[in-house]
Amino acid sequence: MKAVVPFKTVNAKSRLAEILTAEERERLARLMLDDITGALREAGLQVVLLTTTPYQYDAEVVVSEKDLNSSLNDFLSTEAEPVMIIMADIPLITVKNIRDMLASPADVVISPGRGGGTNVQYIKEPRKYHVDYYGASFLDHMRIAEDNGLTVEFFDSFNASSDIDEPQDLVELYIHGRGRAAEYLRSFMALDVSNGRVKIVRDVQKVPEGRRPGRSVATQ
Amino acid sequence: MKAVVPFKTVNAKSRLAEILTAEERERLARLMLDDITGALREAGLQVVLLTTTPYQYDAEVVVSEKDLNSSLNDFLSTEAEPVMIIMADIPLITVKNIRDMLASPADVVISPGRGGGTNVQYIKEPRKYHVDYYGASFLDHMRIAEDNGLTVEFFDSFNASSDIDEPQDLVELYIHGRGRAAEYLRSFMALDVSNGRVKIVRDVQKVPEGRRPGRSVATQ
Question: Could you tell me if B159 and B90 are in contact, meaning their C-beta atoms sit under 8 angstroms apart?
Fold first, then answer.
């Protein structure tokens, strides 16, 4: 069974630009992707990366210049087997989460994202369904399922609902993450709890790998 | 078994002031409380409201002028039975969520809040535990459990993790809520998806109950 992961190869995670450099965002996006595809494979799924430009990745890579909805709907219209569509920015998702979705008796399983979004959809009969990822997509997807006479399970998971879009979202990854993306983040960022609300800040004590200045051992 | 719900009776939900009046915030806070205590009772729990000032409510009301941690720790130190501590601003929580927590074999079950917080804790042996609700409380609670040799279950729920603190959080309640708080919110607010990100705005077409001007039926 296939899991389609749309992945932005150019200027990924631009809303994190106020806190991370372009290089750091690119690396974080790639590590989040690795964490997610690792979990998908462990759950027995075959990963299909959907990109707008060619990209080197150890998976089937489908390149489409169409917008996200059209690309995904093209894909769905040709699939006879069940399909999972999963966003590339939900690194907290676990193998158990994926297995629990696969075990659902519903025709469509939808895991919401924050702010009305849709983070994961597991679609039993792709030809009877289509996606609509802009705006309050959760409500749109509920309506599309209903219009097609399909049963829906609301997948109630903190892990799957935590998409990493804005600086504040990095707090979730920093605190709860167990994969490589979280490890990377913790290698050069820190939590700041000085002001009531928990924030994430650059840790001047830590320096990310590959950016370490050539100090001698004695001064470290 | 008791479920303790800390409830702020004065200037509740002040971070929603930019979008809701004091009266609306007070009503919303009360309806969220009603939704949560309703679910707790349906799951068989006895509700204890913890407040800083006397408050009329159909439950045991414990008034303490101490800070949240001290009040709760005083309470825990006298309880022999398991206790659930649950925040009053997580109106999406369901009876099933509560039952699932109660069914856990772990010594402590912790449901995270957004941004490092702790939204629900189910504590089997309250005298062996204490709470620390400021800063990144999730990490503090994990550490307290570990220091006391207690096993912890991370309770992975979108519903239980969605605390309603800031205007943006109201989007979750508006879209996913099934209780009275969501119904109230939907009676005078609307979603705005015009700008990419889903926001909640006052709906000029809707007027909240009790604020309806005395129009004649003919003009409505």
Answer: yes
Give yes or no: residues A48 and A64 share one domain. yes
CA B93 – CA A142 distance, rounded (Å): 20
Residues contacting A22, CB < 8 A, separation 6+: A11
A→B interface, C-beta within 8 Å: 94, 97, 111-112, 114-117, 134-136, 138-139, 154, 156-161, 168, 171-172, 175-176, 191, 193, 196-198
Q: What average pLDDT does range A123-138 have in this prediction?
A: 96
pTM: 0.93
| One domain, residues B202 and B131 | no
Does residue B149 share a domain with residue B181? Answer: no
Q: Is A9 in the same domain as A37?
A: yes
Structural domain of B127 = 2-161
Of B137, B161, B185, which marks where a domain is finished?
B161
Pairing of strands A60-63, A83-86: unpaired
User: Is 70 exceeded by the pLDDT of residue A216?
Assistant: no
Q: How many whole angstroms separate alpha carbon A124 and alpha carbon B15?
A: 42
Tell me, yes or no, whether B65 and B22 share the same domain.
yes
Minimal CA separation from A210 to chain B, in Å: 29
Q: Which residues of B touch A (CB under 8 A)?
A: 94, 97, 111-112, 114-117, 134-136, 138-139, 154, 156-161, 168, 171-172, 175-176, 191, 193, 196-198
Domain with residue B88: its CATH number is: 3.90.550.10
CB contacts of A197 in chain B (<8 Å) are: 115
Q: Which of B111, B115, B160 sits opposite A168 (nearest CB)?
A: B115
Asked if A97 lies within 8 A of B175 by C-beta distance, the reply is no
Contacts of B176 (CB under 8 A, 6+ apart): A112, A138, A154, B92, B158, B159, B162, B182
Q: Are residues A131 and A37 in the same domain?
A: yes
**Are the beta carbons of B175 and A138 separated by less than 8 Å?**
yes
* Separation in Å, CA A52 to CA A7, A8, A71, A75: 8, 7, 9, 14
Q: Inter-chain contact B156–A161, Cβ cutoff 8 Å? A: no
**For chain A, what is the domain count?**
2
Per-position pLDDT tens, chain B of length 220: 999 999 998 888 999 999 999 999 999 999 999 999 999 999 999 999 999 999 999 999 999 999 999 999 999 999 999 999 999 999 999 999 999 999 999 999 999 999 999 999 999 999 999 999 988 999 999 999 999 999 999 999 999 999 999 999 999 999 999 999 999 999 999 999 988 789 999 998 886 555 554 444 443 3
